[in-house]
Design a protein that fits this description.
heterodimer, A: MutS, DNA mismatch repair protein, domain I, Dna Ligase, domain 1, 4 domains, nine-stranded mixed sheet, B: alpha/beta, Rossmann fold, 2 domains, 12 strands
Chain lengths: ~550, ~260
């Protein structure tokens, strides 16, 4: 399947541009676009102005390195909401030519070129026009950053990379269809993180495997990639060969997936709308989760009482979960309601319609699977506990299988289970029972160290089990230290003869003993090995 | 130290955003009007807690005994089936999506827990806890999980002040503390005393332990009167099962 031809309009330093614009509009501190500016998030530079770049500041640097390189660097706060709000005019301006737009993130627009390109008269003309429209959308063109880059190529990845190249060159880049693979090949694999939403760990692994460029990965056979990385490998192959990133299972969703909220009283406040959006997003996402799906593209529509409409398409390659959906709705409504052209009345309708839905293959899921708020809190707690107590002391149970209660589940330190891949803790449903395992119910107390006891028969002689697995006499008394308990009933011996072929060989016989201790009745699991009795577990 | 994180616990981002905008709006108002505006806003946005959100679910078989666990309470399990009782209390919350933390109970039988129905994929085990670590680790755990199971080894080492702080935290966070065995300095809201009636299935050299009839007794200062209830804990599959009373036997009547 030939990938659709896409155009990407991208501004690498959008957060800075947004900060300057917001300052000019009196919605935040003023910044001089000529001064060395940098936006920081999590102590790292997200983007910087040309003046800062001249002094040696680079995206991805630590704050201290950046300040070392440029001591008079002005730090701009990171604020995705501001970025999204200020991007709205650009979206509207480009939208006047191309109505069907995907807003990938504030600062990045993606659209299919098929219709618009024919309308304008070719890809080159379209690229030129898009660049003009994007700049035209800004109230004040002379702002920081390298402006907009426009790239046109086959598929999302190639178009995104072309847009990056366009920013460096300062003019639009159009990659002809037949040269897509050739265009992709020399790029380093690290571009996959930003441009295709791949896991940084995957990129790291590829680099360590000696696959430094996209061309190296493309040279591998798809079977090898699939063997090594599973579904991810398949996607990787499609990415690097320039095929479409839209997975084959992407299907047009049935109509009933769209969720909407109609307000009887028009709602002017953003906060209340966002609350409503949260409920809608939860409903939509819950429905998709039930079907093992995730949406990658949604249309968010809202309508005011006077019929003003705001309609945006949002795309995210790793899927839009409820919280991401709410963010998109908030960005869109914030840009509309608090923007230059606000609706003339309160909002009466809010609708989210997923247009691309794919199977949730789980590669982007965390270690804990599908997360709820409780899961997030628990993961936070576990991380905190590991920090407090050290990695080995926080455990989760992991099914191993075995004949004895202490073998069936093992407590494994959380830290030992890598951060990716789901942990199969519970017993898989399709595993047949272990031969020689004890029947249910299992003992609720399993002693880490077995307790030495003695078991006596009617004449107070120790009960023994012969090599053929026959008890010398019926157990009558259980001696817990000096404490004497009467055996009410018992069963056994059930022999275990494990690992007879190596040094960890274990030959033992197990008994269940029901004893009376005063008024209490207690049930024990006892084991006799080499003539000595142990209590290994208790049915407490 | 971790102040922003605590605040994050209390509000989700949406709520914080709402708060932020309210704060901005209020700052613009003259002082005389501000107070009235605050009243109006608080009335509109005060968190509404439903009764069912203040409790944790209980296994259906135990519901005749206790319909639900009230969040913030401390439950003590004692008697000969104490561990099974604690596990039985974990079943419904963990299946319902809550997390459980088990502290200082390395001997807990995980196989028995899964047979009872505890979702062990949502259970964290903290096996060793030194006295110095206990305050921080316990409060961290209480912050993040709904059910915290403590053993005697942990409760006996709690000082009265730490116990009080821990319980206040549980109340504010809305979790439930389950204590297996002696409660030490913790004050107990509910006490679940278990005594074994009979074990079935084990003979004289034959059979195997199949099911146990346990008589449960619930009392405590948060429980009006003492209630009793018999259950199979565990039943033949290891799960909780209700004791079904057979109907009265009607003798056959001679006819003709």
């Amino acid at each position: 399947m030939a990938p659709p031809r896409c155009a990407v309009v991208w501004s690498p330093a959008w957060p800075l541009t947004a900060a300057v614009l917001a300052g000019r509009a009196g919605r935040g501190p003023q910044f001089d676009p000529q001064a060395p500016l940098a936006v920081l998030h999590a102590q790292r530079v997200v983007c910087c102005s040309p003046a800062a770049e001249r002094d040696g500041v680079r995206a991805g640097q630590r704050k201290r390195q950046a300040q070392g390189a440029c001591p008079h660097l002005v730090l701009v706060p990171h604020d995705p909401d501001r970025d999204a709000r200020c991007f709205e005019p650009v979206v509207r301006s480009v939208g006047s030519l191309v109505p069907l737009l995907d807003v990938e993130s504030p600062g990045c627009l993606l659209m299919a070129t098929r219709g618009p390109s024919r309308y304008v008269g070719g890809d080159d003309a379209l690229a030129q026009r898009l660049g003009e429209l994007a700049v035209h959308g800004l109230a004040d063109a002379a702002v920081a950053g390298g402006g907009f880059g426009v790239g046109i190529a086959d598929g999302r990845l190639a178009a995104t990379l072309a847009a990056r190249l366009a920013v460096q060159r300062g003019r639009p880049v159009v990659v002809p269809t037949e040269r897509t693979t050739e265009f992709l090949a020399p790029h380093p694999v690290s571009v996959l993180v930003a441009a295709a939403g791949c896991d940084p760990q995957l990129v790291d692994l590829l680099e360590r495997l000696g696959l430094a460029r996209l061309g190296d990965v493309a040279a591998l056979s798809p079977m090898h990639l699939f063997d090594r990385f599973g579904a991810l490998g398949e996607r990787l192959h499609r990415l690097v060969t320039g095929a479409d990133d839209t997975p084959p299972s992407a299907a047009a969703p049935p109509d009933d997936l769209s969720v909407e909220q109609i307000f009887d009283d028009p709602v002017p406040q953003l906060d209340m709308l966002v609350f409503a959006a949260k409920a809608l997003a939860d409903r939509l996402d819950g429905h998709l989760i039930d079907h093992g799906q995730v949406c990658t593209r949604v249309i968010v529509e809202s309508e005011s009482d006077h019929g003003d409409v705001s309609r945006r398409v949002w795309y995210r390659s790793e899927g839009l979960r409820a919280s991401a959906l709410v963010d998109r709705v908030r960005w869109q409504l914030d840009g509309w309601i608090n923007g230059d052209d606000p609706p003339s009345a309160g909002i009466v309708l809010l609708r989210i319609t997923p247009t691309d839905v794919r199977h949730d293959w789980g590669t982007q899921m965390g270690f804990w699977g599908e997360r709820s708020q409780a899961d997030d809190a628990a993961v936070k707690t576990i991380t905190r506990l590991i920090g407090l107590l050290g990695p080995p002391s926080v455990d989760v149970a992991s099914w191993r299988g075995g004949r004895d209660p202490h073998q069936v589940y093992e407590l494994v330190p959380v830290a030992e289970l890598g951060a990716d891949g789901r942990l199969a803790v519970e017993r898989p449903a399709d595993v047949p029972p272990w031969p020689g395992a004890l029947p249910a119910p299992s003992p609720s107390v399993v002693h880490a160290e077995p307790i030495a006891v003695s078991v006596l028969d009617q004449r107070d002689r120790a009960v023994s089990v012969s090599g053929r697995g026959v008890a010398s006499a019926a157990p009558c008394t259980l001696m817990l230290g000096d404490h004497r308990c009467t055996v009410v009933s018992w069963a056994g011996p059930w022999p275990v003869d494990e690992r007879w072929w190596d040094t960890r060989a274990r030959r033992a016989a197990r008994f269940q003993l029901l004893v009376r201790d005063g008024d209490d009745v207690r049930a024990y699991l006892a084991e006799v090995a080499a003539g000595r009795w142990w209590i290994t577990a208790e049915y407490q | 130290m971790s102040r922003p994180e605590n605040i994050e616990h209390l509000f989700d981002s949406v709520a914080v955003m709402a708060l932020e905008s309210v704060r901005r709006t209020l700052a613009d108002l003259p002082a005389a009007e501000r107070q009235r505006a605050v009243r109006a806003v608080v009335g509109e946005h005060a968190p509404l807690t439903l009764a069912r959100e203040r409790t944790l679910p209980v296994h259906p078989v135990l519901q005749p005994l206790v319909p639900a666990l009230t969040r913030g309470h401390t439950v003590q399990c004692t008697g000969t089936a104490a561990m099974s009782c604690a596990l039985a209390l974990m079943v419904a919350p963990t299946q319902g999506g809550s997390w459980a933390g088990v502290v200082g109970v390395p001997e807990l039988g995980v196989a028995a827990a899964t047979e009872l129905g505890v979702a062990v994929s949502r259970t964290v085990f903290v096996s060793a806890l030194t006295e110095a670590d206990a305050p921080n680790a316990l409060s961290a755990l209480v912050d993040g999980v709904d059910v915290v199971v403590l053993s005697r080894a942990i409760t006996s080492a709690l000082s009265p002040s730490l116990a009080r702080r821990l319980q206040t935290r549980v109340q504010s966070r809305g979790g439930v503390l389950v204590v297996v065995g002696a409660a030490g300095a913790l004050s107990i809201d509910l006490q679940l005393v278990s005594s074994v009636h009979e074990w079935e299935g084990l003979g004289d050299g034959h059979g195997h332990l199949q099911r146990r009839r346990v008589s449960l007794q619930l009392d405590g200062r948060r429980h009006g009167r003492t209630t009793r209830h018999d259950v199979w804990l565990p039943g033949p599959t290891g799960a909780l099962e209700p004791v079904v009373r057979e109907g009265a036997v009607v003798p056959l009547r001679r006819t003709g």
